[in-house]
Design brief:
single chain; alpha/beta; 7-stranded parallel sheet; two-stranded parallel sheet; 44% helix; 17% strand
């Protein structure tokens, strides 16, 4: 990670998991003056005690108000928000953030996108990310788009249930994903933010290999000592199973849309971005699961 002791870098969404971890990494690397924005400054008082300048910023407010929170930053990480309550809400927030960055004099924006967000993707959140990328392209700023793959960490939520039932169900066919850990995404984001790159680039951020559901079932079997089989379902059947299991219908629709993306190969191939930007190889799914073996049999 490049170290610039005088440059000011800003991280939005700094009270969230990814944003906070990026701030911590920037502090560890002494990567300049760090500004952290969030709707909830009270949640990161500890970072303020470490020298971070904490500012309130709500991306639902007007551009002028948001811009004041961004003033003084040369480079900014725009962490994609979690506003999924209505279609287009998140894109509107991102567009305001980019307009505010321009107004505040930010020179380079790093954005956390998703792999293959182009039109035609069945993944329901893809249009938000693609629209944000279009807004960045037209804003006149330098940018680094980090197209993150699926978080491997989320497997620690689904695989224990699969181990307990013996069935790993999905509507992904034979498709897979180059799952990447949140920690690796944070390391890449911190490195991109602290770097001297000033142009425009779009990078896929992935783990070391594409992992299918069949392979996930095999890994779960090996690590838990219990038999787990991959059961492929049709999309509607998968949607019904999720809702019957207590998942709200809109979230079930979103989860199934990810499976459809997997089936179409939209979450591969693997890239070398993590290694190239951080100097360290990405954590594999096997490594992650081995480190959390006890959680696989916790249900």
């Amino acid at each position: 990670m490049s170290r610039s002791g005088t440059r000011s870098v800003l991280v939005t969404g700094a009270s969230g998991h990814l944003g906070r971890r990026v701030v911590e990494m920037l502090l560890e690397a002494r990567a300049g003056h760090v500004i952290a924005t969030t709707r909830h400054p009270e949640r990161i008082h500890d970072l303020a005690r470490q020298g971070v300048q904490v500012r309130r910023a709500d991306l639902d407010e007007d551009v002028a108000t948001i811009s004041r929170a961004f003033v003084g930053a040369e480079r900014m990480l725009l962490v994609s928000t979690d506003a999924l309550d209505r279609q287009g809400h998140r894109l509107e927030q991102h567009q305001r953030a980019i307009a505010a960055a321009v107004s505040a004099g930010v020179r380079h924006v790093v954005y956390t996108s998703i792999v293959h967000p182009e039109p035609g993707s069945p993944v329901l959140i893809a249009p938000d990310h693609y629209g944000t990328e279009v807004a960045l392209e037209s804003a006149g700023l330098g940018f680094t788009v980090l197209r993150n793959n699926l978080y491997a960490d989320l497997l620690l939520m689904s695989l224990p249930r699969a181990v307990a039932s013996g069935r790993l169900e999905a509507a992904a066919g034979t498709g897979g994903a180059a799952y990447v850990t949140r920690e690796d995404c944070a390391r890449v984001a911190a490195a991109a933010l602290a770097s001297d790159f000033t142009g425009k680039r779009t990078l896929d951020v992935t783990g070391p290999e594409v992992v299918t559901y069949a392979l996930l079932a095999s890994l779960a079997t090996e690590l838990s000592g219990r038999p787990v089989s991959y059961v492929g379902l049709e999309p509607e059947a998968m949607r019904t199973r999720l809702v019957e299991g207590g998942m709200p219908a809109p979230m079930a629709e979103l989860m199934v849309s990810f499976d459809l993306g997997l089936a179409r190969g939209l979450f591969g191939p693997a890239s070398r971005t993590v290694t190239e930007l951080t100097g360290h190889p990405p954590t594999s799914v096997l490594e992650l699961l081995e480190n959390h073996r006890a959680e696989l049999v916790a249900v």
